Amino acid sequence: MSNNSMNYRSDVKKVKGLGASKSGFGHWWMQRITGMLLIPCGLYLLISLSALGVTGASDVVAWMSQPFNGIITLLFALAASYHGALGIQVVLEDYVHNHAVNLTLRFLTMVLMIVMMMVSIYSVASILLG
After folding, report:
1. Taking the chain (130 residues) in consecutive chunks of 10 residues, what is each chunk's mean pLDDT?
2. Which of 1, 58, 77, 128 could join 70 via S-S bond, C-beta 3.0 to 4.6 A?
């Protein structure tokens, strides 16, 4: 059996250097990292906000004005935005077969993610900095 018969990559993939481990690993890894970051941040927010006994928005603002709580809230919002955008991108790549529609929806997803991140940063910074 010759060495070429065992190579399952196409000529285009050979030229581009794409293979099983070189295509999509960064995307896959970032989904895992953000998912692992969401677990402790989400649990902390769930436990501390449920123990807070919120009676109004002023209680949440007072709670978020503490630096640790504000930073954890911001980390959660940023990780959730990025994680969600990565997940939506995978769904679009798998199920939207029209190339123009796929690119448009992926662009809109990234714009929405950036807007959500900017609003999160502004909101938490305005509470933390007074």
Report:
1. 58 56 78 97 95 87 95 98 96 94 96 98 95
2. 128
Q: How many CB atoms lie within 10 A of CB 120?
A: 18
User: How is residue 65 written in tokens?
Assistant: 């004005």
pLDDT at 37: 97
Nearest CA to 90 out of 46, 130, 31 is that of: 31
DSSP string, 16-33: HT--TTTSSHHHHHHHHH
Residue 52: both structure tokens together? 């807070």
Cα(27)–Cα(33) distance, integer angstroms: 10
Q: What's the gap between Cα 113 and its chain centre? A: 8
Separation between Cα atoms, residue 98 and residue 91, nearest integer Å = 13
Domains along the chain with CATH numbers: 25-128 (1.20.1300.10)
Query: Which string of DSSP letters, residue by residue, matches 57-112?
Result: HHHHHHHHTSHHHHHHHHHHHHHHHHHHHHHHHHHHHHH---HHHHHHHHHHHHHH
